[in-house]
Amino acid sequence: MTMNAIRQFAASKLFDRIIIGLILFTAALIGVEAFPQWMNPTLEHWFNLAHKAVLAAFIIEAAIKLLARMPRPWEYFKSGWNCFDFTLIVLSLLPIAAEFAMLGRVLRLLRVLRLINAYPELRLIVETLLRSIPSMFHITILMGLLFFIYAVLGFHLFHEHDPTHWRDLSYAVLTLFRIVTLEDWTDVMYKAMELSPFYAAYFVSFVIIGTFVVINLFIAVVINNLDEAKYAYLRKLEHPELHDQLLQTLVSTKSSIQELEKQLQTLKDNAGTHSQAPQPVKGTELERST
User: Fold this and answer.
1) Are 111 and 23 in contact (CB under 8 A)?
2) Which residue, 195, 216, 211, 218, is CA-closest to 147?
3) Domain 122-238 belongs to what topology?
């Protein structure tokens, strides 16, 4: 197989579908292994062989992608997803992965995350979340200050009456986390209202500020970055990178030149065959020669 054929195969939809099928097959194996009542020593042996075969297939995949980048194989590592795939392969080949069964299971489970790289839509969502992390930093600081103020205030107000939820600062923070998730937070409020009904304002104000304001700020940041990521993705599709465009053009031109060379060689062979064919001798020339 020539390098041109390897590049075309690595960029083909068939190659992507094969990898997606391997990932789904790995997910099915991991899911079945989570039912211990179905497993037996014979089945575990076959499952281990299947995992080894899948690992070998992923090694071949990485090798194909590296060969497709020749003569610049380092460009394979410019993609964070390719680095993630390569890291999983290297860790799976280390002896420590075979010695510790739990580590091997975790590495197999992480292979399922490769579905994110297989689908551009999923990859776009993950990239949006990563892009949102810097914007969320200041919102996280605001959330931390809010939790600290309300946790200290709640401890001093309710720790004697309700030590289960307000025993110390750590319990108070966990209680506030329960309240901000709206998980049975009214039970905590009614317990505090046994002291005074006016303490309901404490919980209502925290729910309004913590849930309907701060949490919605997180959502707004993610949606805003999602729109920006979609715009960048569409712009990339409309204006592909010059390097990739030139490489594709060169590959196409090379294929066309090779096809023309084959046609010219065929024409030359046919012309040579016709020129070497014996010419018929006319009767007058034959008589003249005699």
Assistant:
1) yes
2) 211
3) Helix Hairpins (1.10.287)
Give CA–CA dist 223/202, Å, rounded: 30
The model scores a pTM over 0.90? no
> 71: cis peptide before it, omega within 30°?
yes
Lowest mean pLDDT among 81-85, 105-109, 126-130, 255-259: 255-259
Token representation of residue 186: 């009214």
pLDDT digits (tens, 9 = 90+) for 205-239: 999 988 888 778 888 888 887 777 777 767 766 65
Nearest residue to 176 via CA among 206, 199, 198 = 206
Q: Evaluate whether the domain defined by 3-118 bears CATH number 1.20.120.350.
A: yes
Q: Positive or negative, the Cα torsion across 33, 34, 39, 41?
A: positive
For range 89-101, the mean pLDDT: 78
Selection from 6-10, 238-242, 275-279 with the highest mean pLDDT: 6-10
The amino acid at residue 105 is: R
The residues spanned by each domain of the chain are 3-118, 122-238
What is the distance between the alpha carbons of residues 173 and 191, in angstroms, rounded to a whole number? Answer: 17
Written as six digits, the tokens of 227 are 């729109």
Q: Are 2 and 66 in contact (CB under 8 A)?
A: no
Does 122-238 match 3-118 at the fold level?
no
